[in-house]
Model the fold of this input.
Amino acid sequence: MPGPLPADGHSDRPRPVTCGPSLRRVRTDRGLDRLITFLDAVVAIAITLLVLPLVDVLPDQGSTVSLGDLLVSERRRFTAFALSFAVIAQLWLVHHRIVERVGSYDRPFVLVNLLWTLTIVLLPFATEVASVYDDERLAIATYVGTMTLSSACLTLLTILLVRRPYLRRPGADPREDDLLDALLTTGTFGVALVLGVAVPGIGYFALLLLFLTEPVRRLLARRAR
Done:
């Protein structure tokens, strides 16, 4: 038989160790702010890393090569830099519009955001691959595929907001969750990836399909009325 309890009414037996607070139960404003700050910092670092390969192309003695000749010979690097800068900036803007409507978070939301940051930090590497290996199919797949995966993550975040209204901040208009636009953009990236890899001669020009996203969205919106 168990011995008598101490005077305070508690047993001397060791209590089971309890785990610390889990992400499923703790969702504070400070936690959300830290998450968004971390994501923004990752984007800022990635977009800064894009310029480092451009610094390396400068000769040790600038007089040996004229600046004009250097810009012409390294035009692929400069073009890839400009395109990647614009892509990362646009991806951040889309992500910013998403988190502006967020008032809480859960584990899937955090995991998708972390996967999105993985695609962002890979873009400087994919940019260098594209500038060095040019029209090789694997280089095109690496570059456009990274963008496609990043766009897919943003679409997943939008789906989470639609499916889990408790993530949305109070007062946020559900109509701002433009799932159609997100699906169209990711789908267009997917088509560009397939065309760029499968069709010789198209390559990175397949990304020009993204200019068709907005006209198609407007057309579908008119038909839905």
